[in-house]
Specification:
By secondary structure, the protein is of the alpha/beta class. The chain has eight helices and eight strands; from the N terminus they run αβαβαβαβαβαβαβαβ. The chain has an eight-stranded mixed beta sheet with strand order 1-4-3-2-5-6-8-7, sandwiched between helices.
Length: 235
């Protein structure tokens, strides 16, 4: 049943479930680390995840949606040991690679969720439970006929806002100009959020020095695209 804390799930998903074989190292990471570090969204029991029990401590929880192959995520988690860092991803080899990177960096504050982040937020995260949500370089779906598949839509932003604690942040980044403008418009229209950098030119946030340059940004730079950051705060 729909209510203010259980928004309607979208019927069109924003990702393609890619295949791909795992390397020997990625497979080893799954076998050795997944039972402790990972959970699958579809297998979660009903209700909110008990984050303090899973992480083994009380700490602010930050959710990163779409961790890819984990290079940026592992570095960000390592750089913020005060956070309980949760990464959600649908790509099995990517999660395996993230566990390898985290192992190499000695990261202990990272947990992984395999599956649809929208289902995770709607069904397994309590309202006000998150200190922050990060969405870096989501699939831009550049063709106009595919824009409905972009994850940043009003229903999704309302869902994210409802799961943020007051003062919690929603940080987005993309190198596609039209998508950046859509992100800005949709987030600005959400009454529970305010743009921390509304007074800056265009409303864009300065690129934070702590966010590693991703392969997507490198490619965008080569192709002449400008990356934009947006940081919204839960009112």
């Amino acid at each position: 049943m729909e209510n203010e804390h259980q928004p309607r799930l979208r019927s069109v998903v924003s990702y393609v479930k890619r295949g791909g074989r795992m390397t020997v190292g990625q497979q080893r990471a799954w076998e050795e680390h997944w039972p402790r570090l990972g959970r699958t969204v579809a297998d979660l029991p009903a209700g909110p995840v008990d984050f303090p029990a899973w992480f083994g401590r009380e700490a602010p929880v930050l959710l990163e949606i779409g961790s890819g192959m984990g290079e940026t995520t592992s570095q960000l988690a390592a750089a913020a040991p005060e956070l309980n860092y949760l990464a959600a991803e649908v790509y099995d080899p990517g999660l395996g690679q993230l566990m390898l990177r985290a192992e190499k960096l000695g990261v202990t504050n990272l947990r992984l969720m395999h599956g649809d982040a929208v289902v995770l937020l709607a069904e397994h995260v309590a309202p006000g439970a998150l200190a922050g949500v990060r969405l870096f370089f989501p699939d831009p779906w550049p063709k106009k006929k595919h824009h409905k598949r972009r994850i940043v839509q009003p229903e999704f932003v309302a869902l994210v806002a409802s799961r943020l604690a007051p003062g919690g942040t929603f940080h987005l980044a993309t190198d596609w100009e039209h998508y950046a403008e859509q992100m800005l418009a949709v987030c600005s229209a959400e009454p529970a959020l305010r743009n921390r950098y509304a007074d800056e030119p265009g409303g864009w946030a300065p690129r934070p020095p702590w966010r590693p340059v991703t392969k997507f940004e490198q490619r965008a730079d080569v192709e002449g695209r400008v990356s934009h950051d947006l940081i919204f705060e839960r009112i």
